[in-house]
Protein: Ferrous iron transport protein B
Amino acid sequence: MAKQIKVSLIGNPNTGKTSVFNLLTGLNQQVGNYPGITVEKKEGVCKLPRGVKAHILDLPGTYSLNASSLDENVVIEILLNKKDKDFPDVAVVVSDVENLKRNLLLFTQIKDLEIPTILVINMADRMSRKGISLDIPLLEKELNTKIALVSARKNEGIDELKKLILSYASIPAKPCVDALTFAPEYFDRLKKAFPNQSIYKLWLVITQDVNFRKIDKKKPAVPPDFEIKSESELKRFQQKETIKRYQFINQVLKKGLIIDEKAATGLRARLDRVLTHKFWGYFIFFAILLLIFQAIYDWSSYPMDLIDEAFAWLSETTKSVLPSGPFVDLITEGIIPGLGGIVIFIPQIAFLFLFISILEESGYMSRVVFLMDRVMRKFGLSGKSVVPLVSGTACAIPAVMATRNIESWKERLITILVVPFTTCSARLPVYLIIITLVIPDEKVGWIFSYQSLTLMLLYFIGFGAAVGSAWILNKILKIKSNNYFVIEMPGYKMPMFKNVAINVIEKTKAFVFGAGKIILAISIILWVLASFGPNENFSNAEEIVTSEYVDLSQEELDQKIASYKLEYSFIGYAGKAIEPIVAPLGYDWKIGIGIISSFAAREVFVGTLATIYSVGSDEEETIKNRMASEVHPVTGNPIFNLASGISLLLFYAFAMQCMSTLAIVKRETNSWKWPMMQLIFMSVLAYVIALVAYQILK
Ligand code: GDP
Ligand code: MG
Structure:
């Protein structure tokens, strides 16, 4: 393979880096993580003129090289380490023409690392409306670089950029601000001690050491006489650096940039006033949330039903075409339903990300953050946590993925950890059947009934558990996060179709290939456990049941056999084995089996009970009647009574009974540590609460 030119895209958040990246690479892109951390890594390949190729890396958005967060640290680590495999041949700094001054701060820092640097001035389409004009040749000369004036939105200037990348070798790698002026005495000493090195680079290594010493111990040691002793000394030097850089930038822009104020219109200000209004702001936001909820909950149900039927059909057809046997059973009852269990989430994920991308792209999301941040921050969450929490009421999987837009890792992690408490739609079938069994069907007052109040209460409990545990996690998690917070207020824009489409496709792919493997593996394991048994009770189930019940119809007989098989399968034995553990919660071994098999997904509980009680799983009335008549073998009391029912409701409210969520949390946090903690914590909590409830009520 011919050598590819290595290009790093660098820039402040919201300057259009990803848009430029999408234009350069199209769908030739991959998303992963940087090794060992959960910062998203996007890379792709771009075809340049004359058959040359470039490898493009979209680095996380960063305001400066004085890193304080993990995301920014990624950028610095790569730029400071010539041996890093991502070290660029050429850096492309993407800037927004409307915020050129602030964006150039980062540009001058990169430039001073003496890496060939191209400056992209993006959003050129907004120049005329804002009355901005630029003297490009003069800016190129003053900044000692090559500039591409680009509009990612209109796909203009990208070819020019490709040409500049191709000829990167001719770009001078000269610094533009003299680091000696930041702290003359200190830098003078540095320069004398390391005459052959870029002192700015050395300086960054030293500051990185101060900032991240606790995180990364294998950093090269700073020579002792150059160690920065205190954080305040460091801050002072950094402030000095920022001042010097802005002096330089101001002086450049005074000559190269002209803004005609009168040309700017006031539409943005008027929109802002409504969208961040004390009443209308919230009103509009909740209306949008309602729409999103509707899409995930209701609109996705049509494609989801189709997918469900398609996989059932596929399973049936395969069964009828192939000769029967354990291998075909594995395919038709294990693998196909397992795959179906993955594909079925695609509509919800796609819908949610369609909305989120549009909200982000249009600039509206920043207003939401502004509105919600103050409230959410009290609980250790971010303004952007609202969307995942609301989406969680439909399904935790897209919700966990939606946390990707939360910049601070700590806030994102807390959101991921608490989202599974919200009442997702898979809990509903379980709730509904138990509520109708144990809660009296009577009215309280005129409108409400005990049953509907119970359901409402369960929703509140879920939300309360989420917010409450966020509050606790915020207190106990020791994670370094952004210690300064900038609310970006970008201008309003029509969303770019290409960005939205790529985002939706990429999120769906991430789910299918990232979490899908785990979901498939666990479904197969659970299938094996339910389809095989340790002794002849399982293998001879048919004969045993047939000889015991002589006057049953074929259908009833089949149901009895299925029930018998499940009872003597591995899962059946597991259910019996945990009976002593779940008995204090008011459950018997049959419910135990239901709990174990519904670890795949909560709604499986109802189907499993139907099988155990040997009734067809599509006859809801029959299941209910059968459950109602189930009595304890010794005491003769009904198994499903108020105490055990409430206990079961609370168990499902708190327990992490969803392997798909665990799989996606593993993917999003890039480790097994967090999903395992989540699983253990939620299960223990669920057990304790269900136990207390049963013991009080019984
Ligand atoms: P990133 O945060 O730097 O990756 O920026 P994005 O690529 O996500 O873009 C941020 C916003 O700017 C999005 O709403 C884009 O649609 C918008 N945007 C990107 N490029 C342009 C452009 O050339 N012109 C205009 N008007 N908007 C743009
Ligand atoms: Mg981006």
Summary: Residues 214-218 have pLDDT under 50 and may be disordered. DSSP finds 32 helices and eleven strands in the chain.
